[in-house]
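Regression test case RT-17, inverse folding.

Input:
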């Protein structure tokens, strides 16, 4: 038998500081336990998501299991870390439990209590590139990928940023210059910049009931929900963008208000593939993940046509998402992951007035009044410092404090919400907690 060699120290992140909450694993739920698991405890395409109308405990347990096992439910493509060295994060633990966190009800709690109350699966704080705190719940480990949902959009923006820097895309270039197939659709006349800022006028509908709502039809086409009888079995999202009536028209002028939609980053992904003749998952590998000093490969969901889903398909480990955030503050091995000019533009040139009462994911749904959006990044405006955030459904958060050199990562499976407003409120409470910790760690910025 060949001798097993230990990996070189330069390729492994030390683990002595890690907090594992083994008592947070609840075997009583019995989800996907047994050989085989009982039928009522199996996670499938039909029950893996706790939707707004279904917040029962069984639903939450299945959703949490799915967050850690998406590649067992759906087809995926690998996002390779490459063969380069791992970015070793130094460890400088700080006793954060002396800090009191606002709970949103006029009271304060310890960080440990806040993490338990907010359905946390994993939590990481980096300060000046060093790990201050790292902990895991519900059976998650250092090498467990967690699904990121819409935080994927922000990571995927880095591919667009690199191709803009290479001159393969132009901000003011019409999207139809790169994807001629979109001529004659609602995207005709929209630019790359319009799509980066979610300000295309395509008639995406998140709010109507039934089949007028674009999202459930898009979700089924993407393969994340079972298709209805009569729907094309092998249709992918690109086919949908050319076929669906809402995709063929505009409901507002391009460049008007921000309106959250999944098709804008998907169209950008299509453009990236066309100009490079490379599938999007491989672009993520080449331009993003292999430059991070990542410890683990990530992966991305794809539809039945093999098209990756940059708007919500990525799963990655806690630490590697932290490394992605840290790359915005200082590159690994002096190699930029996202071009500095793109990051600076995102922070300096956002337009708060673009989020209006007509916006979806705006004030009507309870979006924070200090929120802005640019280049598929959320920006939160605070006195003295604008914060950059990647945010995904169920509480996936990576928030970067550029001046205070802090990165927070919180991966969660939120429960207890029945509306988008309640979901956004949960995220805003987590952001307030990050700010309270930041004030203590780095001092308030005047």
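Golden output:
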């Amino acid at each position: 038998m060949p001798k097993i060699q230990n990996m070189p120290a330069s390729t492994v992140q030390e683990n002595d500081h890690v907090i594992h909450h083994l008592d947070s694993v609840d075997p009583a739920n019995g989800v996907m336990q047994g050989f085989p698991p009982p039928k009522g405890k199996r996670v499938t395409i039909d029950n893996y998501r706790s939707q707004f109308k279904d917040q029962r405990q069984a639903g939450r347990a299945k959703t949490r299991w799915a967050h850690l096992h998406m590649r067992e439910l759906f087809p995926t493509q690998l996002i390779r870390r490459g063969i380069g060295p791992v970015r070793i994060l130094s460890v400088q633990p700080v006793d954060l439990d002396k800090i009191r966190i606002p709970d949103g009800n006029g009271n304060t709690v310890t960080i440990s209590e806040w993490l338990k109350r907010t359905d946390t699966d994993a939590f990481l704080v980096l300060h000046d590139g060093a790990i201050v705190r790292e902990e895991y719940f519900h059976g998650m480990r250092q090498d467990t990928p967690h699904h990121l949902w819409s935080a994927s959009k922000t990571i995927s923006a880095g591919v667009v940023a690199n191709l803009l820097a290479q001159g393969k895309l132009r901000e003011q270039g019409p999207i139809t210059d790169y994807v001629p197939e979109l001529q004659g659709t609602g995207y005709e006349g929209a630019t790359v910049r319009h799509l980066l800022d979610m300000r295309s006028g395509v008639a995406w509908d998140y709010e109507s009931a039934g089949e007028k709502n674009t999202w459930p039809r898009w979700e089924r086409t993407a393969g994340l929900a079972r298709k209805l009888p009569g729907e094309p079995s092998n249709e992918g999202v690109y086919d949908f963008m050319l076929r669906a009536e809402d995709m063929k028209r505009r409901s507002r002028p391009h460049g008007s208000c921000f309106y959250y939609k999944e098709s804008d980053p998907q169209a950008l992904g299509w453009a990236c593939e066309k100009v490079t003749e490379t599938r999007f998952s491989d672009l993520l590998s080449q331009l993003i993940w292999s430059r991070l000093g990542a410890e683990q490969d990530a992966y991305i969901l794809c539809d039945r046509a093999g098209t990756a889903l940059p708007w919500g398909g990525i799963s990655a480990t806690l630490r590697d998402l932290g490394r992605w955030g840290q790359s915005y503050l200082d590159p690994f091995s002096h190699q930029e992951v996202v071009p500095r000019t793109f990051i600076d533009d995102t922070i300096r040139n956002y337009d708060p007035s673009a989020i209006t009462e007509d916006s979806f994911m705006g004030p009507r749904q309870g979006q924070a009044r200090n929120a802005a959006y640019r280049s598929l990044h959320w920006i939160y405006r605070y006195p003295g410092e604008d914060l950059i955030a990647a945010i995904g459904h169920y509480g996936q958060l990576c928030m970067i404090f550029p001046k205070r050199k802090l990165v927070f990562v919180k991966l969660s499976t939120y429960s207890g919400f029945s509306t988008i407003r309640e979901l956004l409120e949960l995220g805003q409470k987590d952001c307030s907690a990050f700010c309270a910790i930041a004030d203590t760690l780095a001092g308030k910025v005047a």
